[in-house]
Amino acid sequence: MARAVGIDLGTTNSVIATLEGGEPTVIPNAEGQRTTPSVVAFKDGEVMVGEVAKRQAITNPDRTIRSVKRHMGDSNWKIEIEGKSYTPQEISARILMKLKRDAEAYLGEPIAKAVITVPAYFNDAQRQATKEAGQIAGLEVQRIINEPTASSLAYGLDKEHDHTILVFDLGGGTFDVSVLEIGEGVFEVKSTSGNTQLGGDDWDQAIVDWLVKEFKNEHGVDLSTDRMAVQRLKEAAEKAKIELSQVAETGINLPFITATTEGPLHLDVKLTRSTFQKLTEDLLAKCRSPFQQAIKDAGVSVSDIDDVVMVGGSTRMPAVKELVKELTGGKEPHMGVNPDEVVAAGAALQAGVLTGDVKDILLLDVTPLTLSIETKGGIATRMIERNTTIPTRRSETFTTAADNQPEVEIHVLQGERQMASANKSLGKFNLTGIPPAPMGMPQIEVTFDIDANGIVHVSAKDLGTGKEQAMTITGGTALARDDIDRMIHDAEQYADEDRKLREAAETRNQADQLAHQTDTLLKEQADQLTDDEKTAINAALGDLRSALNDAEATTETLRTKMDAVVTASQALAQRLYQQQAAQATQTEEDSAGPAADDDDVVEAEIVDEGDE
Amino acid sequence: MADDAGDISPAEIIEEGQELDPHELGIELPDDPQQAVQTLLRAVVALRLEAGSYLEDLQRVAADFDNYRKRVLREQSQNVERAAERVTRHLLPVLDSLDAALATDSESPTTDRVLDGVRGTRSLLLDILAEEGLRPIPSVGTPFDPTVHEAAIAPSDGEGTLVVTTEMRRGYTLHGRVLRAALVAVDHE
């Protein structure tokens, strides 16, 4: 079946996306870029699109077309090239053809159907022209949808009822504000406003202008007349702008930016976020009135807005985010990692719905919080991590914590904390009837299975006897959003403390195990030991045991005592090791077969019922 | 898409009032109507169970794929970090040599030797980057090619093939892919 795609056919850049496993994925072009400049050029019968067309623009200005989107639907606009006249849709089709061709090469399959986005203010003629462009490019245009609608779809807002959505789209060269209303799965554009000549490039230019001025003040040299210097300034300005979204101050360092008769000159300045914001105050102010106009035209008030969606790379700037927050009365906007890809992603989702790729039965949930079981020392051992898509299943094998332990307790927990007691208990059950065996020998397979409805089935099976116990937890995943957020927040807040507690518990477990092993060793190898060695090991072991019995003993104390036991039994261990090595060689020669491997038993041990 | 109901589409089957012929559908029914109903009911229950198990399998596969996708994404970002680590480690000798250049006593008349050192450092850097797959893009004297050259200065008119006359900033390819186009001035041959 031919694949469907979503295309954001932009004024300066275009993006194409498709669904992979139900998730929108941007398809990179042949040059490896996720966005393609919307530039088309003709030269000697050859057509160039994208970055290549941009690079030759200055050599071929009459036959290089930028921003053709601004002419869509204008029946008077024609461009004469090499004796042939082209309409805006024919030029746009060239961009679509490149996107289609590159995507087909990337995916290795043909693309037949597409959803293409247009600005909400496009009239019928402009929409018709966009549809024609798609058809010329060999695409079956399933639907033309509004850019703000696509953005809202990308954030799943089509599931909402009677919501008012504000979409704030600040791209590279254009600015759009739209107010939408969603009712019964249908979006209605209530108003649009904006500025077709405002975008992120203006913010870059403000930095370039500032750099030129600063440099002139200091060195008396005008960098704006030096093409290569300007190129470097532009790149540095964009980089600085992006960095200032993360940090409060950045360095712009351009050594050998130019040369005078007195030698080379270097540019090395600091730009703080506050200076940057002062330089671009007027640009930010230009965002205000279209915002207020859109609200007014929609006939709503700011308090009616349920959702705010941020689109376009420039909305990453903290000042822009703050402005939108201020204008919307402190509302937290929807904003993804790649705000410049949101429109194409939404279009791809729409294409998937229209093609039938997106089926309701396959809209799967994720586990909101981690599910664990309590193991020795009160540690929460993770079975299914938070944000795992369900239905899912996971098994892990555990063992006992004491010799001849007759039963194990399976205590199911929910939450992100490292220690069992800090998480929410979902239930517990016992697996009984484990035959007497040394600790660490029995193999208990614990399986977590969450079905599509979020119902958790937990089972524990003694692999030795085949005996099994199980429990079903319903409604465990149905937590209020606030509770989930609080639990995640707690886990972050107490991360350090939890890590220490876990370390302490793990050290205690190791110490316990060491004491047990040393005991066994002493019993089994009594004849191998001198009296002095016995006394030394027993003394160290006694120390370790009393530390273990002391609930207040610190991790450091336990480690020191463990080291002492290891040191005391070192001579014995070495002797045994040598003997074993000799024996092993012998066995190998005798049987020449593979040695029986230890089974894949996970070190953690299920808490013993008797321990509680 | 499965099409096993022959020429009849699912929509047609479900459509109300349409008379369906068991023979056409390939279903054998007992003559006794009571028995026929029982046979059909049994078939409905069996098919329901089957559909349920298919749906569950499908959901599990879809969820597995989704979890796999999440893991691949996580691993990808780790790989990127690891790759950066390797390149960065290879670049450290360049940093060492620049540090050494700066440690020279600025009072002593060693400018030429410092310049020699800078030249050496540059070729060291180029060697390291060449090992990573970096190649300079040939420009001056070659025909203008927008796949690797970015024109910054061009004649306003004239005819003939465009050639690169000046390289303003060198361009590079990495493993054959343009990392940065060469910034050039062009003119007619």
Major beta sheet summary of chain B: 3 strands, antiparallel
The low-pLDDT segments of chain A are 588-603
CA-CA gap between termini of chain B: 60 Å
Derived structural class of chain A:
alpha+beta
Helix-strand category of chain B: alpha+beta
Q: Separation of termini of chain A?
A: 60 Å
Question: Roughly what fraction of the amino acids of chain A lie in strands?
Answer: 25-35%
Oligomer: heterodimer
Classify the helix fraction of chain B into a percent range.
40-55%
Describe this structure in words.
The complex is a heterodimer of chains A (612) and B (189). Chain A is of the alpha+beta class. Helix content of chain A is 38%, strand content 26%. Chain A has helices at residues 51-55, 88-107, 124-136, 147-154, 200-219, 227-243, 273-279, 281-298, 318-327, 342-355, 481-493, 495-524, 531-549, 555-568, 570-591; strands at residues 3-9, 13-20, 23-26, 36-37, 39-43, 46-49, 64-66, 79-81, 84-86, 111-118, 140-146, 163-170, 175-183, 186-195, 249-260, 263-272, 307-311, 371-375, 379-384, 392-398, 408-414, 424-431, 444-450, 456-462, 468-473. In chain A, α5 crosses α6 (227-243), α8 packs parallel to α9 and α12 (495-524) runs antiparallel to α13 (531-549). The longest helix of chain A is centred in the last third of the chain and has 30 residues, at 495-524. The two termini of chain A are 60 Å apart. Chain B is α+β, with helices and mostly antiparallel strands and 189 residues long. Chain B has helices spanning 10-14, 22-25, 33-102, 111-131, and strands at residues 134-136, 149-153, 162-169, 172-174, 177-180, 182-188. In chain B, the strands form two sheets. Chain B has a three-stranded antiparallel beta sheet. A three-stranded mixed beta sheet of chain B has the order 2-6-3, with no helix packed on it. In chain B, α3 (33-102) packs antiparallel against α4 (111-131). Mean pLDDT of chain B is 86; it is low at 1-6. Classes of the chains: A alpha+beta (612), B alpha+beta (189). The interface between A and B is medium-sized, with 32 and 31 residues.
